[in-house]
Specification:
By secondary structure, the protein is mainly β. Helices cover 13% and strands 41% of the residues. A six-stranded antiparallel β-sheet has the order 2-1-11-10-7-8. The radius of gyration is 14 Å and the shape is globular.
């Protein structure tokens, strides 16, 4: 039987892909909010002209996480253009040319193990990711 911590103890991770290749995995411990954008001060920095300085903010909520678009360029979650959306484990977030896959962990140990995992490409699933990012 799998034990889960409450949502308040869930650790947010983002696997970042560009052109179907895994380029980074950012584990954002127990932060209440995470900034994503081109600015060097963001928690997750995505260097590309299609990415706004502060493109999105992910907030911890009582029952999970919620992403807010702060850009003029748009944001897609699972292929849908959104201003605000709940995000769950496995959701696909498209920001400019980047695809971020949401990873939620129930413990620091699980997050640390994921962070230590070698980067994989997602070529086998690239068609799904590309469709979800453009739909």
């Amino acid at each position: 039987m799998e034990t889960r911590t409450s949502d308040a103890g869930t650790i947010l991770g983002l696997a970042v892909y560009l052109d179907g290749r895994h380029v980074a995995r950012k584990i954002v411990a127990m932060s209440d909010h995470v900034t994503v954008g081109r600015n060097p001060c963001t928690d997750v920095r995505l260097r590309h002209p299609e990415v706004s300085r502060i493109h999105a903010v992910i907030h911890r909520r009582l029952h999970g996480f919620e992403i807010h678009d702060r850009s003029s360029n748009g944001l897609r979650v699972n292929g849908r253009l959104v201003e605000t959306s709940a995000v769950r484990d496995g959701d696909i977030v498209a920001i400019g040319p980047f695809v971020l896959v949401v990873e939620l962990y129930g413990s620091r140990e699980a997050a640390a193990a994921a962070a230590a995992t070698p980067a994989d490409s997602i070529e086998d699933d690239a068609e799904t990711l590309n469709a979800a990012s453009r739909t």
